[in-house]
Design brief:
Distance between the termini: 50 Å
CATH class of one domain: Mainly Alpha
Subcellular location: Cytoplasm
CATH architecture of one domain: Up-down Bundle
Shape: elongated
Protein name: ACTN1 protein
CATH topology of one domain: Methane Monooxygenase Hydroxylase, Chain G, domain 1
Largest sheet: 2 strands, antiparallel
GO molecular function: actin binding; calcium ion binding
Keywords: Actin-binding, Calcium, Coiled coil, Cytoplasm, Metal-binding, Repeat
Radius of gyration: 50 Å
Number of strands: 4
Structural class: mainly alpha
Strand order of the largest sheet: 1-2
Organism: Neodrepanis coruscans
């Protein structure tokens, strides 16, 4: 009797728990305000009583309402009097208990419906959660694929820029992409894979079919798209560096072209007019002789300038081959110089012929002036070449290259004493001519008829050469210092990269060992991996520091480093793979915990499974081949014969653990198989039987029954997805709960 009383009291407490102002603790004073009786009626037949209008301070109304409704609609006779209950300090316990038991028997049928509703709620909640996870995966996959689709054309754009500044801005944009835009997407990709694995695990645990994403949104599709992004990214960076080198080379060549062209144009200025003069027609014999010698000196000078014209043409050709953006103006200027050079040659030949025709009339010649002109012209050309070389720009990338330029410059300086002797000899010739003019009073008008090069010009250019030498010394010293700084940057980067690279490799190997070893429970392994992940994340400042050093190297335009075999790209890829590997390993352990808890596997069983799996995983790949898997099953006591029946059974097992026919079995699939027979999960038949209880044993269910027995959101979920019932016993609005139940478990379309 006592256990029956306690059971009835517990039933009352559970049914009235959601109602305010109702606190059933006994079968006497807890029922005096009448709210307990009203709550029991409203809990099972809410349409009979408007509970919201009841007041705790009006017990007579509450009691009479409950007694009248129970007698009229529930066939429960009035066994109690409202005034007696209110007027008694402690109502009769047995009377109230007898009356309440009438409610219990009246509503016993509803108890079964409530149990059935709870089961359906549980199943629908799982299905709703899985659908939300599927929607989240589809959206995240779509967003990531869209970002990849928008980014790849940008990385594949190879439209060159005309200026170094524009290309360096592209390089800076690329660095921002690697540093700011890509890392969050790497995390999204990793999270997407984790969500996918978690969803599949939950579907397996709830006996649902595996989730198949929309076409083009599989994890493999995303990995393929990501691989395309990585490939485009690699080619883009290489193209940027090549373009910067090309523009650097073009700027150097263009400046060299302008310098040589300006020097040549300065030299040719007025030469055509000089060659077209008719002065020989009215000249004396001595003047004609002088004109002829002067012309010979000019031809010598002209031949000396042939190399410069060829250099100008060669530079212009190279600029064209390198697609210099201002090639039209370069070509026009080069063509003008070549046309002028050809014209100078033709004019020179024409003037020589005219002078030679007149040469027979000429007798006098001044050898000293001629010797001066012949020696002054090449010396003048040498000085112009020296000035050009001393002002020539240079590009070097190593200390050895700048040392080579310095050695060449020192060799040039060693030739200056001999050149000064030549200058003094040339000036001595001129001084001797002046002495002869003064001594013999020769009327030479104080000019050299064979050349326009004066001692003043020679001295001026010589002084200019002497001034350019120390400037060249200073430029070489500054470049040498810059190359030393670049070498320090190489060594600094190399020292860090040679530590970080092996560290990443070591961590990858350690994670691989952790994933296959057994040390403690799965929770211990998970905690160990999370601590490991934290230590890896704490290493990030070293990567950032290396990125900073790499940026300094990029800004210094350093393209090679003999102090390390690691590039920043190697470090970035290794770091990203390390973060992805630890995240995947943690996710695998979490899924193992989900499987263990859902299937009721003990830690000892899990350890036994892991030990057997590791024993036959001889290559430590984390997977078993078919033969290894068969041997593992046999070692765990699974009976697989060598006959045709055994082979068929093993083929059936392989179709379960390797549905994609990849030829390997993962540890997760192995655990799922080993625990499959002991699973305590709902089935389509169980859900169908629960719906049949709610429908009152009918083959269909109505909208009103769903809304009365299920929570609002889950009732509407069923109404929206249930097909109309078309059986012979159908009524208007009848719904087919049988096809709906099979669809929940993937046995038909939902």
């Amino acid at each position: 009797e006592t256990s029956a009383k306690e059971g009835l009291l517990l039933w009352c407490q559970r049914k009235t728990a959601p109602y305010k102002n109702v606190n059933i603790q006994n079968f006497h004073i807890s029922w005096k305000d009448g709210l307990g009786f009203c709550a029991l009626i409203h809990r099972h037949r809410p349409e009979l009583i408007d509970y919201g209008k009841l007041r705790k301070d009006d017990p007579l109304t509450n009691l009479n309402t409950a007694f009248d409704v129970a007698e009229k609609y529930l066939d429960i006779p009035k066994m109690l009097d409202a005034e007696d209950i209110v007027g008694t300090a402690r109502p009769d316990e047995k009377a109230i208990m007898t009356y309440v038991s009438s409610f219990y028997h009246a509503f016993s049928g509803a108890q079964k419906a409530e149990t059935a509703a709870n089961r359906i709620c549980k199943v629908l909640a799982v299905n709703q959660e899985n659908e939300q996870l599927m929607e989240d995966y589809e959206k995240l996959a779509s967003d990531l694929l869209e970002w990849i689709r928008r980014t790849i054309p940008w990385l594949e754009n190879r439209a060159p820029e005309n200026t170094m500044q524009a290309m360096q801005q592209k390089l800076e944009d690329f660095r921002d992409y690697r540093r700011l835009h890509k890392p969050p997407k790497v995390q999204e990709k990793c999270q997407l894979e984790i969500n996918f694995n978690t969803l599949q695990t939950k579907l397996r645990l709830s006996n649902r079919p595996a989730f198949m994403p929309s076409e083009g949104k599989m994890v493999s599709d995303i990995n393929n798209a990501w691989g395309g992004l990585e490939q485009a990214e690699k080619g883009y960076e290489e193209w940027l560096l090549n373009e910067i080198r090309r523009l650097e080379r073009l700027d150097h060549l263009a400046e060299k072209f302008r310098q040589k062209a300006s020097i040549h144009e300065s030299w040719t200025d007025g030469k055509e007019a000089m060659l077209q003069q008719k002065d020989y027609e009215t000249a004396t014999l001595s003047e004609i002789k002088a004109l002829l010698k002067k012309h010979e000196a000019f031809e010598s000078d002209l031949a000396a300038h042939q190399d410069r014209v060829e250099q100008i043409a060669a530079i212009a050709q190279e600029l064209n081959e390198l697609d210099y953006y201002d090639s039209p103006s370069v070509n026009a200027r080069c063509q003008k110089i070549c046309d002028q050079w050809d014209n100078l040659g033709a004019l020179t030949q024409k003037r020589r012929e005219a002078l030679e025709r007149t040469e027979k009339l000429l007798e006098t010649i001044d050898q000293l002036y001629l010797e001066y002109a012949k020696r002054a012209a090449p010396f003048n050309n040498w000085m112009e070449g020296a000035m050009e070389d001393l002002q020539d720009t240079f590009i070097v990338h190593t200390i050895e290259e700048i040392q080579g330029l310095t050695t060449a410059h020192e060799q040039f300086k060693a030739t200056l004493p001999d050149a000064d002797k030549e200058r003094q000899a040339i000036l001595g010739i001129h001084n001797e001519v002046s002495k002869i003019v003064q001594t013999y009073h020769v009327n030479m008008a104080g000019t050299n008829p064979y050349t326009t090069i004066t001692p003043h010009e020679i001295n001026g250019k010589w002084e200019h050469v002497r001034q350019l030498v120390p400037r060249r010394d200073q430029a070489l010293m500054e470049e040498h210092a810059r190359q030393q700084q670049n070498e320090r940057l190489r060594k600094q980067f190399g020292a860090q990269a040679n530590v970080i690279g092996p560290w990443i490799q070591t961590k990858m190997e350690e994670i691989g060992r952790i994933s296959i070893e057994m040390h403690g429970t799965l929770e211990d392994q998970l905690n160990h991996l999370r601590q490991y992940e934290k230590s890896i994340v704490n290493y990030k400042p070293k990567i950032d520091q290396l990125e900073g050093d790499h940026q300094l190297i990029q800004e210094a335009l350093i393209f090679d480093n003999k102090h390390t075999n690691y590039t920043m790209e190697h470090i970035r890829v290794g770091w990203e793979q390390l973060l992805t590997t630890i995240a995947r390993t943690i996710n695998e352990v979490e899924n193992q915990i989900l499987t263990r808890d859902a299937k009721g596997i003990s830690q000892e069983q899990m350890n036994e499974f892991r030990a057997s799996f590791n024993h036959f995983d001889r290559d430590h790949s984390g997977t078993l081949g078919p033969e290894e898997f068969k041997a593992c099953l046999i070692s765990l006591g699974y009976d697989i014969g060598n006959d045709a029946q055994g082979e068929a059974e093993f083929a059936r097992i392989m179709s379960i653990v390797d549905p994609n026919r990849l030829g390997v079995v993962t540890f997760q699939a192995f655990i799922d198989f080993m625990s499959r027979e002991t699973a305590d999960t709902d089935t389509a038949d169980q859900v169908m039987a629960s719906f049949k209880i709610l429908a009152g044993d009918k083959n269909y269910i109505t909208v009103d029954e769903l809304r009365r027995e299920l929570p609002p959101d889950q009732a509407e979920y069923c109404i929206a997805r249930m097909a109309p019932y078309n059986g012979r016993d159908a009524v208007p609005g009848a719904l087919d709960y049988m096809s709906f139940s099979t669809a929940l478990y993937g046995e038909s379309d939902l």
